[in-house]
Amino acid sequence: MRKPLSVLLFAAALAGPGRPGVAADKPPAPPASTAISPPLPIGVEADVYCTGWVDDAEAVFPASIFSAERIDSKQGLIEGDVVYVSAGTKQGVSAGQEYWVVRPARTVYKHGSVLDVLGRVYLTPGRVRVLCAQDDSAIAEIVLSCSDVNVGDSLLPFEPVPVPLARRTAPLSSCDPTTGKVTGYIVDDVDQITPIAKDSVVFLDVGDEDGVAPGDFFSVYRIPSSEYSVRILLGEASILTTKRKTSVAIITSMRDTMYVGDHVEMK
Question: What is the dihedral of CA 3, 8, 11, 13, to 10 degrees?
Fold first, then answer.
């Protein structure tokens, strides 16, 4: 015999939310702006090993590549090629040591200036491992090539750089106020492509001295030249590596195109 509907409704009311036999109401979902992901990698190894950095314009390096085993038959050197290094055991070089291959490139100026130098872009086309060392020279093998390695490239002792892990929150909206944290500018981009695209790697003019660390997120925005000067949010960038006054960041989300000179603000 079926129970009347009124009896069933009365029983459900007695059970109430969370009581046996009746499903409790689900708690409301957190606002999108506070939703946090588990720690996720920011970029891939190539983003930290093959993109270089911006540092002091007149950096000094302890060694360079002065020749190569196949110098007579090829110009651009790649992974597996053997090179000759201008430092040896007297300079502390020993078998097994690894070195960044570093190539000084273009000068970077502070935002809004064509005279005030921020630093220089140093490209990192590869990495070498020392096979054996003599008093003032060494023989090394290229163990990573992001692009061609050339005779004359400089060397810098290598230290592993982990790909940062970070918890991602939803990008700020146009209604969110400024955070009041560190601000700066995009001062250059690795590939020199205009406009800058998602997953592009860029250089910022904020670094260790500003309290910036790998894994930090920055909102990218632009202030239009109008009487209202309301900022336009363009997307986000996350820090891969830092130097004293600069950092390397990857564009992790994009709402609109970005350019060198756009503003950044730490979330």
Answer: -160
Closest CA to 138 of 203, 174, 94: 94
Residue 231 three-state SS: coil
Residue 238 forms beta bridges with which residues? 217, 250
DSSP state string for 150-218: -TT-EEEE----PPPEE--BPPPPTTSPP--S-EEEEEEETT--SSB-TT-EEEES--GGGT--TT-EE
d(CA 203, CA 189): 6
Phi, psi at 120, each rounded to 5°: -135, 145
Q: What secondary structure does DSSP assign to 21-58, as a single string?
A: TSPPPPPPPPPGGG-BPPPEE-S-HHHHHSS-EEE-TT
Interval 40-51: pLDDT, tens: 999 999 999 999
Residue 71 is classified by DSSP as: T
CA atoms of 83 and 139, how far apart (whole Å) = 6
Locus of tokens 């944290």: 181
Average pLDDT of the residues in 236-265: 96
Name the nearest CA neighbour of 127 among 170, 97, 104: 97
Question: For 147-189, how does the pLDDT look when each residue is reduced to its tens digit (9 = 90+)?
Answer: 999 999 999 999 999 999 998 888 888 888 899 999 999 999 9
> Which single residue is written with the structure tokens 């590596």?
241
The mean of the pLDDT values for the chain is: 88
